[in-house]
From TrEMBL:
Subcellular location per the Swiss-Prot or TrEMBL entry: Cell outer membrane
Record-given protein name: RagB/SusD family nutrient uptake outer membrane protein
Signal sequence residues: 1-21
A cellular component term, taken from the record's GO annotations: cell outer membrane
Keyword entries, A-Z: Cell outer membrane, Membrane, Signal
Pfam families the record matches: SusD-like_3, SusD_RagB
Residue ranges annotated for the SusD-like N-terminal domain, each copy included: 42-228
InterPro entries assigned: SusD-like_N, SusD_RagB_dom, TPR-like_helical_dom_sf
Assigned protein family: Belongs to the SusD family.
Chain ranges of the RagB/SusD domain: 380-499
Main location: membrane
Length: 501
């Protein structure tokens, strides 16, 4: 998005925040009304861009925290913030969930994502009444709004389960209208699937927008595939849902997507919007501040002069603050001949007293940003869906249907191991072993991409693989997040999730 679009959105921001519930963190009625704003295609474009700005506000930290921090992949680093320990140790409760923060980038309440939903609702209400240069432009706008609403509700229901369903923009402060009880996760999922179908019927083509940082038909199919894997595995959807996932993936494979030969290049700041990306959240210099990955690198203050030169060379220009790091448990699962290893993390080695070296600390090298004016900036795009993720979803759906997932798994492995691929070829033997192989491959391929916690829930492995949950097996309420005390105090009709009372 261009800076001028952000300025355009300054007007719609005032208007779109008009008089919503306190829970949704929207301001009182603005001087700019909906009636005076929605007059032209340019107004709609500004509002559409603003919706993506709101999503970026959630991608700065929340999407990563909700999708990764409770898994076995993350741990404290040298500057580790004590507040984040409640994620790693799975000790979240109603008091700490809204206050546990990673350098101000994490706020585990649902308010922010509801502002994204509000923006989508505004577009869906007012955009149809505008005159456009073509029907294709109009349909593209509406399709993106439907997809965004579906995505936001999907993230929220995976995190908190039952939710208040809001499908109209809030345009006046009437407590009897805006204070809603939670609807069941089944009702939420019904809305999500309906919105995806509406979007898919409206997209004028299967093309990606330049940059691949706005929703498209292929990206919506990726969302649909994940949604159906989720409902198929966690909500009893079974074979019909798994087949729907495969059908969606077949549509994706008709589009302009491919695995890049060089794994690290997927995340290169200079290679944004490459052919492996289906949907990403855009971060640009002068347009956005650093994202959560500023908390996972290595600043000079925490670097040791004893580090070996190889470690220093890999790190390059230092930056950020090492609050979080990949856990040793996760790092140890990468083999040395896996190109994803160095492209995901860097271990800083120091000499041992008796000879050899030992690990002093580690830094995540994936999403390590770019150097501007001698300073490291963490403004890589946050990728929501990419083709390797889709291939592993394909393997997962095939395996769930008792089909052979070999081809999809091996496409991912062939890229990962290159010349050593022959030592890592997957050979199918049973659905159980395939499930384990796919879940591990997702860890190796998608580490620190905000996917792991959801994968563990979908595969029903959280209590087996997360050390802090192994002694809590049977406490299934821990699969959901608690609702923050701040939310409960503002919304009297909202009831706490079971187990956190």
């Amino acid at each position: 998005m261009k800076v001028k679009n952000l300025l355009t959105y300054s007007a719609v921001l005032l208007m779109s925040m008009a008089s919503c519930t306190k829970t949704l963190e929207l301001d009182p009625v603005s001087q700019i009304s909906n009636q005076s704003f929605w007059k032209s295609e340019a107004d709609v474009t500004g509002a559409l861009n603003g919706m993506y700005v709101r999503l970026r506000g959630q991608a700065i930290g929340n999407l990563f925290a909700w999708g990764e921090l409770r898994a076995e992949t993350m741990d404290r680093s040298l500057a580790g913030a004590a507040g984040l320990q409640v994620f790693y140790f799975n000790e979240l409760d109603r008091a700490n969930v809204g206050t546990a923060a990673g350098n101000g980038m994490v706020n585990s309440t649902w308010q922010g994502m509801y502002t994204v939903i509000h923006d989508a609702n505004l577009l869906l209400k007012f955009a149809p009444g505008i005159t456009y240069s073509s029907d294709a432009v109009k349909n593209q706008v509406l399709a993106e709004a439907y997809t965004m609403r579906a995505y936001a509700y999907f993230v929220l229901t995976k995190t908190w389960g039952a939710l208040p369903i809001v499908t109209d923009p809030t345009e006046g402060y009437k407590p009897e209208v805006i204070m809603k009880e939670r609807s069941s996760k089944e009702e939420v999922m019904k809305l999500i699937k309906s919105d995806m179908e509406a979007a898919l019927s409206l997209y004028p083509n299967s093309n990606f927008k330049t940059g691949r940082n706005m929703w498209s038909k292929p990206a919506t199919y990726a969302l649909k595939a994940e949604v159906n894997l989720w409902t198929g595995k966690t909500m009893g959807g079974g074979a019909n849902d798994f087949q729907a996932a495969l059908t969606s993936i077949a549509e994706i494979e008709k589009s302009d997507v491919a695995l890049l030969d060089n794994y690290a290049s997927i995340f290169d700041y200079e290679n944004k919007g490459n052919k492996e990306v289906l949907m990403a959240v855009r971060f640009q210099d002068l347009e956005a501040g650093d994202n959560i990955f500023a908390n996972i690198y290595m600043s000079g203050a925490y670097m040791t002069s004893a580090a070996d030169q190889a470690s220093k060379d890999k790190l390059g220009v230092l930056g950020g603050l090492p609050i979080m790091a990949m856990s040793q448990l996760a790092r140890n699962q990468f083999t040395l001949d896996d190109q994803r290893r160095d492209a995901t993390f860097i271990e800083v080695n120091i000499p041992k007293a008796g000879g050899g070296t030992e690990v002093f600390a580690s830094a995540v090298s994936k999403f390590s940003g770019t150097v501007i004016g001698g300073n490291r900036r963490f403004i890589d795009d946050i990728i929501l869906y990419r083709y390797a993720d889709v291939l592993l979803m394909k393997a997962e759906a095939q395996n769930a249907l008792n089909q052979d997932p070999t081809e999809a798994i091996n496409k991912v492995r062939k890229r990962a191991y290159g010349a050593n691929y022959s030592n890592h070829i997957y050979v199918h033997s049973s659905a159980t072993l395939a499930n384990d192989a796919i879940l591990k491959e997702r860890l190796l391929e998608l580490a620190v991409e905000g996917k792991r916690w959801w994968d563990l829930i979908r595969f029903d492995k959280a209590f087996d693989l997360v050390p802090s949950l192994q002694a809590k097996k049977g406490k299934d309420y821990l699969k959901l997040f608690p609702i923050a005390e701040t939310t409960l105090s503002l919304e009297p009709k909202i009831q706490q999730n079971e187990g956190y009372l």
